[in-house]
Amino acid sequence: MRESDILDLIYGVLADPGWWPSMLTSVSDYLGAAGGMVAYCAVKGESFLTTGRLSDEYGDLFVKQYASNCWSDALRFIPFGQAVICGSLVEDRTLRKTGFYADILAPQGIVNGLSTSHMSMAVDGGAGGFGFMLSERGSDKAQQGLRKLQRLVPHLHRALDASMQIGRYRQHGPQLERILQAMPQGAFLLDRRGGVLYANPAADALLQSGDGLLYQDRQLTAVLPEDGAALARWIEGALSAASGMGALHDPLRLERPSGKPALVVMPIPLPQPAFPFWGLFDHARLLVLVIDPVFQRLAAAPTVEKAFGLTPAQARVAVLAGAGLSAPQTAAALGLSMATVKTHLAHSFEKIGINSQAALVKLFTSLPSDPSNGGWPI
How many CA atoms lie less than 13 Å away from 224 in the CB half-sphere? Predict the structure, then answer.
């Protein structure tokens, strides 16, 4: 294959990130390598790997345990864009004593490699770039492969730069934000580190109230310390689930100092990037919905108002009391005094034809809940 054909394949990945594995395979053939990869080796956080004709099984093990290895550590001292033979960085006898060699290289028949590091992957102390793995046969022609790779390096790096730039605009962009903007409930988008990328107006209002949920150092936390620790663990677990590395947690309840009913926090993992390295940027990995039970119940107030001839204020008190909120909780939720709540509740009982909150709860819970069948949004 001619070098011009290889260049066509390299820049072809800009049309579809799914072509990266086949491009890496073709470049490997051109260099005389067994297979190729582009990898990000994180110091903290998540490492990434895309391979061409290398084992997925060993690739997964590499990401989990060996993203930091003797070759990647030595490459940190090589100038960006300079192609090197990995065997020249670490003595063979030293390499063969490592778990990296025993668990990753040896089972695949890899004895050497050609690599070049990429500047844009020097993120959070991490490093990364391109690597092409050599078998015993390919290692004999390592110098020839090195010269070919050095000519390709500028093109490989430009293709990676352009792919990542495209990724800034393709992952969870303005369309998702427009949808969340219209949602009545609080919604946050979190990146892979748990940092808040976006809060819709309802979420911003919750933060402004300082009642149950806070925003500190780009992170969500809770007003109550014990809830804050639980929320941090919950977000960490939800992000692990979003990466396919754990089970999704149940919704979390955050108590509110005001006495209003607890907020309910629900996780929705977002699809992983089509090209793993798009995750190096602040792409949304988790949608966090924050449900305010008071808001949910108050949505039924207009229906109750019309059905029983209540005033708007009486209907708001009635739907919260009918949902089981205590008088203090109802007062806190609506910003009313206890005396006002009791007055509205007494007038509501009289108009509805009942004489207790228990009867009100029983009445509302007995009503059908499917609005499409003429039910009640309660």
Answer: 14
Residue 198 near residue 192, CB atoms below 8 Å: no
DSSP character for 102? I
Q: Are residues 114 and 214 in the same domain?
A: no
- CA atoms of 173 and 168, how far apart (whole Å): 8
pLDDT tens figures, 227-244: 999 999 999 998 888 877
CA distance 244 to 247: 8
Residue 96 carries which side chain, given as an amino acid letter?
R
* Cα–Cα distance, 52 to 328 (Å, whole number): 63
Q: 257: which DSSP letter?
A: T
Cα 224 to Cα 75, 160, 230, 250, 255: the distances in Å are 46, 44, 10, 20, 7
Residue 271, sorted as left (phi over 0), alpha (psi -120 to 50) or beta, turns out to be beta
Burial class (CB in 10 A: 0-12, 13-18, 19+), 269: middle
Q: Sign of torsion, CA 367 368 374 378?
A: positive
Task: For residues 303 and 273, state if they share a domain.
Answer: no
* Residue range(s) defining the domain that contains residue 235: 174-291
Residue 64 has pLDDT above 80, yes or no: yes
Alpha helices in the chain (DSSP H): 3-12, 20-31, 56-61, 70-75, 92-95, 99-100, 136-139, 142-170, 174-181, 201-209, 225-242, 293-298, 301-308, 312-322, 327-334, 338-352, 357-366
Q: What is the pLDDT of residues 206-223, one digit of tens each?
A: 999 899 999 998 899 999
Residues 179, 268, single domain; the answer is yes
Predicted local confidence at residue 247, as pLDDT: 73
pTM of the complete model = 0.60
Between 156 and 240, name the one with better pLDDT.
156
Model pLDDT for residues 259-276, shown as the tens digit of each residue: 888 888 988 888 777 777
Of 170, 200, 226, the residue that ends a domain is: 170
> What does the pLDDT average to over 112-139?
91
